[in-house]
């Protein structure tokens, strides 16, 4: 059996509605995401842990600039965990979400311009993204290119039973517009 990684409360960096996000205890560049025990959607979120491996896949080099990177799966004391590259700010802290930036009034014209670049990518990509809310977008420092970029860190794939957006570009486009509208409405409310 593979060695189990032990995660403690001290390693906890963030949490969403469904997942805990831990610092990887053996590698400062990585995170481990596990499903929060006891949530109503526990079993479907557990399936997502495996499904994301397939769905969170860039189709080309540009996609990989705008998406979080999954390195693989590990066994942890908190259940199966996704090993993910930690998006960081220039100082090496965990990257801020678009939600945090808006709340802290930090969306200046440069960041808004970068948000436009990100949204242009979102509109054109073939990667299916089902949930583009402001906490699923982070402002990340790219040390290789010496620039910040907004990136999506959650919400990959089509959750409908028949995965309609895989069959039809029209449905995919309609879903994208819905996602985009919702995100921009939330962002306006936060500002
Ligand atoms: N790759 C990453 N790099 C930096 N921070 C991240 C990364 N992935 C997640 N986070 C942080 O952890 C938080 C929760 O992660 P994530 O969105 O994956 O959890 P979730 O529970 O599935 O979310 P939701 O509430 O949308 O269901 C994010 O809002 C973000 O602050
Ligand atoms: Mg999320």
Automatic annotation (TrEMBL):
<dbReference type="Pfam" id="PF10707">
    <property type="entry name" value="YrbL-PhoP_reg"/>
</dbReference>
<dbReference type="InterPro" id="IPR019647">
    <property type="entry name" value="PhoP_reg_network_YrbL"/>
</dbReference>
<protein>
    <recommendedName>
        <fullName>PhoP regulatory network protein YrbL</fullName>
    </recommendedName>
</protein>
């Amino acid at each position: 059996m593979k060695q189990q990684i032990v995660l403690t409360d001290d390693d906890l960096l963030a949490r969403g509605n469904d997942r805990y996000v831990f610092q990887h205890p053996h590698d400062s560049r990585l995170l481990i995401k596990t499903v929060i025990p006891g949530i109503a959607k526990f079993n479907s979120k557990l399936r997502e842990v495996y499904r994301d491996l397939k769905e969170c896949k860039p189709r080309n080099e540009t996609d990989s600039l705008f998406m979080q990177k999954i390195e693989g799966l590990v066994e942890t004391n908190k259940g199966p965990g996704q090993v993910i590259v930690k998006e960081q700010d220039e100082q090496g802290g965990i990257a801020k979400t678009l939600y945090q930036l808006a709340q802290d009034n930090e969306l200046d014209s440069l960041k808004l311009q970068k948000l436009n670049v990100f949204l242009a990518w979102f509109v054109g990509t073939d990667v299916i993204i089902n949930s583009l809310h402001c906490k699923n977008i982070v402002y990340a420092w790219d040390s290789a290119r010496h620039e910040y970029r907004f990136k999506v860190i959650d919400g990959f794939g089509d959750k409908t039973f028949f995965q309609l957006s895989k069959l039809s570009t029209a449905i995919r486009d309609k879903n994208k517009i819905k996602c985009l509208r919702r995100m921009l409405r939330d962002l306006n409310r936060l500002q």
